[in-house]
Amino acid sequence: MKFFVTGCSGFIGSTLVDSLISDGHVVVGLDNLSTGKEEFLDNVKTNENFTLIKDDIKNVNNYSEKIVNTDAVFHLAANADVRFGFEHPSKDIEQNTINTFLLLETMRKCAIKNILFASTGSVYGEAAIIPTPENCPFPVQTSLYGASKVAAEAFISAYCEGYKFNGVICRFVSLMGPRYTHGHVVDFVKSLKHDPKILKILGDGSQDKSYFHVNDCVTAMKLLANKMISNTINGFYPINLGTDEAITVKESAKIICHSLGLNPKFEYTGGRQGWIGDNPVIKLDIKKAREIGWHPTYTIKESIKDTALWVSNNFCY
């Protein structure tokens, strides 16, 4: 089969591309390399089944001849800067919402009907139901990132209704694993590299979050794409991906420190949130994913440890 992957050199995108090429598929990838790393594609860049387009997704219409006859699009390109979103309020709508619309229009021009979209558990905001199911009412949005993903989901839903697209909407909890480039594990490891005796933690450390491994994520996305292509699932199809576990930021910090052989003093900035838009509790109900035959294979502890060691060994500070 042939797939188009936006954000192909990012953390999730490059891991997905590796797996698709290993499976024998043809892959066209698009990335402007603003946050993704071209070296993440070292395993596939000389493979005859892989084509890399180095450009911004806003120009996707210029490459329609390269993506015709595509079986499905994995749309992973996005601005993923949740924490500092209010410092550049136009970035999320431009890169996450408008670019999704431009991609949908290019797909319509090329008669491509299947899209798998990397959304986020952040669309649920501070959810009233924990663990949160897919049909939970959306609350007031707490981040511009979450708001832009909700808007992008709405466009995909409208294209499913009006143009008979199939849209799988993957609402992720935060991912972990090799090639992880931003988030609390990077922040903690970086801090510990500079001062192994003290670790400053945003908030009070009681924020209760779920995380899952990028390898489990890729397995789920490939399964969902295959079901969409075979028409086993169709139309607008939101689905949560994560684990049945959760862990506090304080406990996560302990795992990271133990993985690095350190025992620093923890200092907390205080408050129930680390920053504006930081939802104190994120736990998703993954019953729907289990019912279609997917289940996570990594524990949260394994995911955090794997990530901490990779970040420590691969980042220069």
How would you describe this structure in keywords?
single chain, 317 residues, alpha/beta, seven-stranded parallel beta sheet, three-stranded mixed beta sheet, 9 helices, 14 strands, 36% helix, 18% strand, globular
Describe this structure in words.
With 317 residues, the chain is of the alpha/beta class. It contains 9 helices and 14 strands. The strands form 4 sheets. It has a 7-stranded parallel beta sheet. Strands 12-9-14 form a 3-stranded mixed beta sheet. It has a two-stranded parallel sheet with strand order 7-10. Strand 5, helix 4 and strand 6 (166-172) form a beta-alpha-beta unit. Helix 1 crosses helix 6 (214-229) and helix 5 (184-194) crosses helix 9 (300-314). The longest helix has 21 residues, at 89-109. 47% of the residues are buried.
Topology:
Elements: E1 2-6, H1 11-22, E2 26-31, E3 50-54, H2 64-67, E4 72-75, H3 89-109, E5 114-118, H4 144-163, E6 166-172, E7 174-176, H5 184-194, E8 198-201, E9 208-209, E10 211-213, H6 214-229, E11 236-241, E12 247-248, H7 249-259, E13 265-268, E14 281-282, H8 287-291, H9 300-314
Parallel strand pairs: 1-2, 1-4, 2-3, 4-5, 5-6, 6-11, 7-10, 8-13, 9-14
Antiparallel strand pairs: 9-12
Helix pairs in contact: 1-6, 3-4, 5-9, 7-9
